[in-house]
């Protein structure tokens, strides 16, 4: 639960946006209802890995498919499981400014620590529109805000545009997920000293060592719960060390590089098939192999087919160990 005033948002972020943060999927039952017990079990699983915090109803959480009632119910469940002891972020992007602020109000009321917001897709075509929209949110809430720079929202801001966003007092940083490596590196160099800039992939950590900048938080990805299991949280360990400036090359090469290569192969294949859409179906299927709740994806996304799921199981088994796939319920 946020315990800071609006003018203390940057100090809060400096202390708490560190290490590995996770992205939660929104699990559904076969009847296409929110699987609340599955969501609770997933949160307990992620927390058991040593992950620092998590965000909900983000891209991987299929926010576009949720009713307002479902979206705020996810907030309620996540907050209840966090218990005021685990930092949590709520994604509040909406094409309606009123809905965005209503979501922000609910997140604040139930104890979220920060908000994340992207461009309001469809009519937002200029950086100035994005800037003013984010300002509407930041002026409305005392919570820290992270901006989500991603092509999924229809527009990408360059480093200078991101700098303007980060000049808004309680905008503490950027999830820089443009998939443009040059843009990410330039954003780190330009803004990393004053704002939290996070590219959600390990390559940025190695590039930072080479170029002299330091990413301090992996905000946020699905790699913790797809690569790790309780007692074998090698990804979380690596990120914790790397975000403190101690990249463990041996740990990465032995425990992470093989599963990351497999993930990249499947990720790119799935993204290409759907012309750039996030591979939620892949991540849900992968999570189920780790004993998590996922269920189907909602239209217009499409689930992996039975043959693909079988291939994925064999591939994950071969890299992690035969004991991983179907390790059992964590509920």
Give a nutshell description of this structure.
By secondary structure, the chain is α/β, with parallel strands linked by helices. The protein is 47% helix and 11% strand.
Order of helices and strands: HEHEHEHEHEHEHEHEHHHHH
Biggest sheet strand order reads 7-6-5-4-3-2-1-8
Rg from Cα: 19 Å
Main β-sheet description: 8 strands, parallel
- CATH class category name: Alpha Beta
Portion of residues in beta strands equals: 5-15%
What layout of secondary structure does this protein have?
Layout: H1 9-16, E1 19-23, H2 36-48, E2 53-56, H3 68-82, E3 88-91, H4 97-109, E4 114-117, H5 127-140, E5 144-149, H6 159-166, E6 171-176, H7 181-191, E7 196-198, H8 203-211, E8 217-221, H9 223-227, H10 234-242, H11 249-273, H12 280-289, H13 306-320
Parallel strand pairs: 1-2, 1-8, 2-3, 3-4, 4-5, 5-6, 6-7
């Amino acid at each position: 639960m946020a315990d800071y005033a609006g003018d203390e948002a940057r100090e809060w972020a400096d202390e708490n946006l560190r290490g590995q943060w996770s992205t939660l999927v929104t699990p559904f039952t076969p009847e296409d209802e929110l699987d609340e017990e599955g969501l609770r079990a997933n949160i307990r699983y992620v927390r058991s890995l040593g992950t620092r915090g998590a965000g909900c109803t983000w891209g991987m959480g299929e926010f576009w498919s949720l009713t307002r009632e479902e979206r705020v119910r996810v907030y309620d469940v996540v907050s209840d499981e966090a218990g005021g002891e685990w930092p949590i972020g709520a994604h509040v992007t909406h094409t309606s400014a009123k809905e965005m602020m209503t979501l922000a109000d609910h997140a604040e009321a139930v104890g979220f620590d920060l908000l994340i917001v992207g461009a309001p897709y469809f009519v937002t075509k200029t950086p100035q529109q994005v800037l003013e929209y984010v300002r509407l949110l930041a002026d409305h809430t005392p919570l820290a805000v992270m901006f989500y720079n991603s092509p999924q929202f229809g527009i990408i801001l360059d480093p200078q545009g991101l700098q303007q966003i980060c000049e808004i007092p309680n905008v503490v940083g950027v999830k820089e997920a443009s998939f443009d490596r040059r843009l990410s590196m330039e954003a780190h160099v330009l803004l990393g000293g004053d704002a939290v800039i996070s590219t959600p992939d390990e390559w940025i950590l190695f590039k930072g060592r080479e170029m002299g900048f330091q990413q301090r938080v992996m905000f946020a990805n699905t790699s913790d719960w797809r690569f790790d299991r309780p007692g074998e949280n090698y990804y979380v360990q690596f990120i914790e060390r790397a975000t403190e400036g101690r990249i463990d090359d041996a740990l990465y090469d032995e425990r992470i590089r093989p599963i990351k290569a497999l993930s990249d192969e499947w990720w790119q294949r799935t993204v290409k098939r759907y012309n750039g859409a996030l591979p939620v179906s892949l991540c849900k299927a992968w999570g189920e192999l780790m004993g998590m709740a996922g269920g189907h994806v909602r239209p217009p996304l499409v689930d992996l087919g039975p043959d693909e799921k079988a291939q994925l199981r064999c591939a994950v088994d071969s890299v992690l160990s035969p004991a991983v796939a179907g390790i059992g319920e964590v509920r």
